[in-house]
Protein: Glycoside hydrolase family 76 protein
Organism: Mycena venus
Amino acid sequence: MEGLPKWRQNEAQSITLFLVLLKPLCSQTVDMTPLFISTALLLPLRSLAQQASSSWRKPNITTSRDDRVSVAEAAIEKALVFIDATNGQFSDPGDSYGLGGTLYSQLAEFDLATNQTKYADVLQRYFLAAGESLGQYEVVNFTGDYFGIISPQLCVSGGSGFNTVHRNYGHAAALAYTTYKIPAFLQYAEQVWWAVNSYTLSQKEVDAGTLLLKSFALKSTCSGITMAGGTFRPFGRREITTTPDMNAAATGGFLVLSALLAEATHNIMYLSAAKASADFLQAHLLNVQNVVQDTISGRANDSCALLQKTVEASYNSGIMIEGLAILYSITGNTSLYDQIGKMVTAGIPYSGWQSQNGIIANGATKSGDMFFVRALATVNARNAATPALQSYISAYLAVQFNAVIDLATTKGSNIYANSWVGPPSLSFAPGNQTNAIQVLIGAINSDNVTTPSTAPSGSVPSPSASNFSPLSPPPPHKSSSHVGTIVGGTLGGLALLGILVGILLWRRCRAQQDRDMAIQQPHSPEAPRINPFDLGYRLMADL
């Protein structure tokens, strides 16, 4: 087994141990058949739900890492051509200022993924220019009608369907600080945090029933659970005091920003805020299918029913998953780990935002989604899932990468379409471009995230080696290899075969024992019987 990942070695050793344990069992009159049969059936089913679908389009990345870096960099450089250096914005910043923040975040993430500082100076200039120029659009502390955190806006695109627009300055500043350790970026991130915190309910405000920025009485609980931790979504400065909506995008964005700041500063205030946001999302916006819904009212006497949009969007789940993954890497809390697993397993095959080919396609325009992609990449980078689930995620991310480079662009143009299922576009749009850039960046270190970690698939791996690093460092350059997958599948088959052989050996041993007892000890009392379900629980827990 030399050369195999440690978790595969552990799995093989577990099978060996299982067979060794058969010998002492043969000396007892114990009916273990139900246990063995159930174990044989459950082991292969454990990972069945986390295997790439045969209908997925191209779930493997064959492009070299150097080429992936080049493709991502070319897409970024194309976007930068359309940035006005005097204000750090795309054209018409009154409508698109949030997209500038999205690109800022991606500049820092690209440098972090490639272990360089290429865009550090550019980001300092752009943040300074943006902060000075956006006041005319009622943007203060990088927040305006839509927060400077992660707040997707659904708007009509071409008369029908939806296109996701992103507001991302807080995330960009926090990530830039993590990447470059330049204090100004931390100050920008904290400015956004304090601005959004004023829209977020604390338990004290819930108990008082009032929030300074709202003109109505607050709802204290829904289903007996506090509304603390929820963030109100502003629809505009004129409606800021009357809007009762608390949505997943605003609350999830505050969760991510708080978690990033907790990681960067080790300040318990940010960690507590992140936990409160996560608790609110799980209690009030996560449905029984482990899919995040859109909105709930925070106004007293309003219904606790969810105000779900007619078209479910992947970004709601994506933002929450990203926040939980960062929280897990800080705290190592196994309940967060379990919830991440449930949400990822539910979200990847969810038909509400994709077809059978596995390509994300939200709404009538079949828009891609950078938030769900970034969330899954964060889960893998922070080791917040089992090796089996990480492999499942990697295959899904490969589908998105291949769709973006094959179907959403014309070769050599470096311009990307809104829909990742095609057709490509030769017309540049900031939202389309930044959406695709996130996929390209997420694929840069795919060699790293597709390699199983050292933990066995049934246990909770430790958070990534550096609890305060949102992305793993780039891996050594190497060609793709599926040997581990092939060997792993072989071992899985051998494991099942070993269990079946074990059952036959035990039954043979049992038959021999019965004959011996009939001859030598015809009147011996019955040996104590073992509860197979109790033992089965312990064995499965060990596995």
Q: What stands out?
A: The chain has one domain: 65-480.
